């Protein structure tokens, strides 16, 4: 099964890291991805830019509206993701606990991927 690990963290805490600490976090993150790949669990991952760079798009009554950034009330925001393969949710959770950002206080939401069943073309 596939699982999406969504990483939530306070960007201010990451910004406060020294340059050597940031480089170590990057090295540790890349190393973690490589280890997942070596073990057959890694599919893809990406870091995201801050919410300040985001745009929220809505369509209501056929009208499109855009808003700068998401509506967030907390310091934590979605900062990246890792798509993995695991035998079950328990294994996915165990894999997620070793994500370097999680070890530095980030939260990770582990969500199973919904496989859309094949549909007949109309």
The number of helices is 4
Radius of gyration: 17 Å
Looking at the overall shape, the CATH architecture is 2-Layer Sandwich
Shape: flat
| Spatial sequence of strands, sheet with the most strands | 2-5-1-6
Specify the helix fraction band: 25-40%
Which key terms come to mind for this protein?
two-stranded antiparallel sheet, 4 helices, Alpha-Beta Plaits
Description:
The chain is α+β, with helices and mostly antiparallel strands. The protein is flat, with a radius of gyration of 17 Å. It has one domain: Alpha-Beta Plaits (2-Layer Sandwich). The chain is built from four helices and six strands. Helix content is 30%, strand content 35%. The strands form two sheets. A four-stranded antiparallel beta sheet has the order 2-5-1-6. A two-stranded antiparallel sheet has the order 3-4.
Layout of helices and strands, plus pairs?
Layout: E1 2-10, H1 11-15, H2 19-38, E2 42-47, E3 55-60, E4 63-68, E5 76-85, H3 89-96, H4 100-103, E6 107-112
Antiparallel strand pairs: 1-5, 1-6, 2-5, 3-4
